[in-house]
Design a protein that fits this description.
two-stranded parallel ribbon; binds zinc ion; 492 residues; alpha+beta
């Protein structure tokens, strides 16, 4: 068995062990962390009735950025979405590819064993994966009721743990020591009480919301008012219903969806709606992490390519979140309830939704923690521009990118092989083709037999069972999901 704190600690420690490259500057830059943890349960030899479980981080990601539409590449060589959750998932796919390769060539995998059908593999008994994120995912899950400090079930952020003394956070306490909403700078839109919109006001708020959105999910909050998480305190459902205001997200509703009402207080946002990530300036085509994680909970996180080789979806058994503003009802709504009614899924895709848990341990580089340790003269607190991917593979496990390409590549080298991240579409496709190349004809999965497949798009479309599940999910839960333009998927 495991606890949420144990998982958080494991992921934070793994992060600390990584080299400095791509890490945020302490006290000035913040970032988000996400990871995939493998849990292996075995029967204890001494006590056969007890299970022993080993936990291992197999993929880890950091990052806060997302590129705009015009920077997307038809060669599949740029990372469109570098939010930590997405980076962690892509690294996990890379890890799974390597494990599958080991299984296919008979070197023995620590994860897979032959499935029932020829060419298909399944997870070994006792193996499961869970997802860790240092913060509430952006988008729908981040629309969190804010609760008055008087009725807080646990010490609000900004209080020293274990005391009733506020931390030394500028602007947190009033003269008389009562907590008040922090007056935030230009990024503070998320926590400001909305006023009736005038046009100018509306634009200003939009700008605020956009910059705040990068912060909204990762621990920045008004210390007095947010629904602070505590793993020991069950969801404050009743309190949340009484909340007069909500934390806001800068992720806009997808085109075609009824927009946010933008009314004062708790009626500012629509809830349960697909949202796109904000970018700097131009809009992105990337769905929010809440939406992507809801999709992974049904289709698995292995993606279409790997599904050719797998007997069913690989879903996370749990999603553990670090200490940050958090609402269990909002997480449930965003990650599981929206897809709970979907029926007609093919065999292997009807898996239970992930368990949702929160740890009381905070990431040392969270936005809130960075604000607390920031010192004068250090320069403005800002999100770290780099994204780190690390996964448990033998060759080059570490991959640091900025703006979707390897960090530090010269402008001249952009677009060359050297500039590509090892988790971009092209590279994962290359790994997949290597897997195909080492698969004996007699062991080829049925969906790949006797077919003339060339492009990335072809191989994804040929994954019939996965595509069938995706179609059901889209039709029943996410009809407005923004799909990648086909011309960006025709590389080979
Ligand atoms: Zn995100």
């Amino acid at each position: 068995m495991w606890s949420a704190d144990e998982i958080a600690r494991l992921c934070y420690d793994r992060f600390s062990e990584l080299p400095k490259r791509g890490k945020p500057e302490l006290g000035r830059e913040w970032t988000l962390l996400a990871a995939v943890v493998k849990v292996s349960e075995t029967q204890s030899l001494d006590l056969p009735e007890q299970k022993k479980s080993e936990k291992e981080v197999v993929s880890l990601g950091t990052g806060t950025k997302c590129i705009g539409r015009s920077a997307m590449s038809p060669r599949g060589d740029v990372l469109n979405d570098s939010h930590a959750e997405v980076i962690a998932r892509r690294g996990f796919v890379r890890y799974l590819m390597e494990e599958l390769r080991a299984a296919v060539v008979g070197e023995g995998s620590r994860v897979f064993c032959p499935g029932d059908e020829r060419g298909k593999w399944r997870l070994l008994d006792g193996i499961s994966f869970l997802f860790f994120t240092s913060h509430t995912p952006c988008g729908d899950a981040s629309i969190i009721p804010m609760i008055d400090s008087q009725s807080q079930p646990c010490p609000p952020i900004g209080m020293e743990e274990g005391t009733d003394r506020p931390n030394e956070v500028p602007g947190v306490t009033d003269g008389d020591g009562t907590l008040k909403r922090r007056v935030e700078g230009e990024e503070g839109g998320a926590c400001k009480r909305p006023r009736p919109d005038t046009e100018e006001e509306g634009e200003r708020k939009e700008e605020e919301a956009r910059s705040a959105s990068e912060a909204s999910a990762e621990g920045r909050c008004s210390p007095a008012k947010c629904s602070t998480a505590d793993p020991d305190v069950p969801s404050a459902g009743g309190l949340e219903e009484q909340a007069r205001d909500i934390r806001r997200t800068g992720a806009k509703c997808v085109p075609g969806a009824p927009g946010d009402p933008r009314l004062a207080g708790r009626d500012y946002h629509s809830v349960g709606v697909l949202r796109v990530k904000p970018g700097r300036g131009e809009p992105t085509r990337s769905l929010s992490c809440s939406d992507k994680m809801a999709r992974w909970a049904v289709l698995g996180c292995q993606g279409a390519l790997l599904s050719h080789y797998l007997q069913g979806a690989i879903c996370f058994s749990a999603v553990v979140t670090g200490k940050c503003p958090y609402s269990l009802p909002a997480m449930q709504r965003a990650l599981t309830s929206r897809c709970a009614q979907v029926t007609g899924l093919p065999a292997g895709y009807e898996l239970p939704p992930p368990q949702l848990l929160q740890s009381g341990l905070e990431f040392a580089h969270s936005h809130a923690q960075t604000e607390r340790s920031h010192q004068q003269g250090q320069g403005r607190v800002s999100p770290c521009g780099a994204a780190i991917s690390w996964c448990a593979v033998t060759d080059q496990p570490l991959d640091v990118t900025a703006n979707g390409y390897k960090q530090g590549v010269t402008r001249k080298a952009l677009g060359t092989e050297k500039s590509r991240s090892s988790i971009c579409k092209t590279e994962l496709f290359r790994c997949f083709q290597n897997l195909l190349a080492v698969t004996a004809d007699s062991q080829l999965p049925q969906s790949l037999r006797g077919r003339e497949l060339k492009t990335y798009w072809d191989y994804k479309q040929a994954a019939q069972t996965y595509q069938q599940a995706w179609l059901q999910l889209r039709m029943q839960a996410f009809p407005l999901w923004l799909r990648s333009p086909r011309n960006l998927l025709l590389f080979h």
